[in-house]
Amino acid sequence: MDFDIQKIRSQFPALDQQINKKPFVYFDNAATTQKPKIVIKRLIDYYNNENCNIHRGDYFLSRQATEAYENTRKTVQSFINAHQSDEIIFTRGTTESVNLVASSFSKKFVNKGDEVLISAMEHHSNIVPWQLACKERDAQLKVIPINKNGEIIMEEYYKMLNEKTRIVAVTHVSNSMGTINPVKQIIDAAHNKNIPVLIDGAQAMPHLEVNVSELDCDFYCFSGHKMYGPMGVGVLYGKEEWLNQIPPYQGGGEMINEVTFAKTTFNKLPFKFEAGTPNVADVLGLEKALTFISSIGYKNIQKYEKELLQYTNRQIKNIDKIKLIGTAGKKTAVFSFLFDDIHPYDTGVILDKMGVAVRTGHHCTQPLMDFFEIPGTVRASLAVYNTKEEIDQFIDGLKMVRKMFV
After folding, report:
1. Which of 22, 66, 252, 260 could form a disulfide with 275 if both were Cys (CB 3.0 to 4.6 A apart)?
2. Which residues are catalytic?
3. Domains of the chain, with CATH numbers?
4. Is the pTM of this model over 0.85?
């Protein structure tokens, strides 16, 4: 469709309200995005008309829901250009996807003295699972350094790849800074040494077109709720060759082929990694979120969000005593910042009084905050439904904060 910001905004009921008698400005999109009507309607329709378990029923509604669920798998496959739908595993979100790989991959391929590489800008969800795996396997977690702009130092990364490296796990886009990492170069360098790579794509999917076949990543993880879909559903893409080699993450219904008290044989892909009753409604809602993104097109999204990024940058830099954290050359419209003499929480509370929702704190990246020697930041993260008028309201709020603490 033609890019019409008012038409886009009209699809999001949550945006049409006031907070503290001010127009509601939602700038916490890196935490979760608002949901369009087509996503909300799909959830309601499922629970009103189709609610049943899938794969196991021979009656009409079960067959219908099963077909819709598996069609969503094919939609996701096409959306990220995976080779086949069996490489799409539905999870509860990026966190579970990373935990699945960290647990199952390490049991098979990580041993005493081996190394796992992550970067210094990772979300806790791409740190803690690997710490647990390394502790269990007596391996070492190595951290790829970053510079003061919030960019991976690629020369150091290349040096760290060696015969002990078993896997590299890095974020595509930083949730705290918006840095867009050179993941294709990271993947290619690892593959030159036959090392697999996992990419945390939670922050990339709302903003960037992702083609896993072109990237040639071995695993790619993302969440529905950060890309206009429901909470409680995510995706793990994994190359078939790896998914067939690693053991199941959880045991229970659906992931089994045959169970006896003596032993259990496991189901084929993708069901081997989908134990228990599936989250059918939210999977179907995810499909509608992909429909929403496709209706706008990533080229339009990137062009518009780049305009918002540049517009905000010009204005925020003119505010006295403000410091941006994360100034990478390539980034999404995420602004982490601090006033020199004002606690982030105070800034966030005052902005809320002005109707502007931002996030304050460490953003689940405490090691990154330690690197910058700060307790946390104020983070404003934008999405395709945000406007320049909202940015103006945000900037006015920051000016008010500055005046109150003079």
Report:
1. 252
2. 364
3. 5-28+297-404 (3.90.1150.10), 40-294 (3.40.640.10)
4. yes
C-alpha angle 307-386-206 in degrees, rounded to nearest 5: 80
Q: What is the pLDDT of residue 264?
A: 81
Asked if 300 and 308 count as a contact pair (C-beta separation under 8 A), the reply is no
Mean pLDDT within 127-139: 98
Tell the burial category of 155 from Cβ atoms under 10 Å away from its Cβ (0-12, 13-18, 19+): exposed
DSSP string, 156-181: HHHHH--TTEEEEEEESB-TTT-BB-
One-letter amino acid for residue 293 of the chain: I
Q: How many residues does the chain have?
A: 406
pLDDT band at 73 (very low <50, low <70, confident <90, very high): very high
Q: Distance (Å, rounded) from C-alpha 90 to C-alpha 279?
A: 9
Q: Encoding tokens for residue 81?
A: 């250009």
CB-based contact 193:161 (threshold 8 Å): yes
Q: What pLDDT score does 57 carry?
A: 79
Place of tokens 């990220």: 80
Can you read off the two tokens belonging to residue 294? Answer: 């496709």
d(C-alpha 27, C-alpha 138), whole Å: 42
Angle at 107 between CA 104 and CA 112, to 5 degrees: 140
pLDDT at 198 over 70: yes
Provide the token pair at 127: 């740190």
Query: Using one digit for the tens of pLDDT, what is the confidence trace for 264-314?
Result: 878 788 999 999 999 999 999 999 999 999 999 999 999 999 999 999 999
State residue 32's pLDDT score.
98
- What pairs with residue 360 in β-bridges? 378
Residue with tokens 């269990």: 136
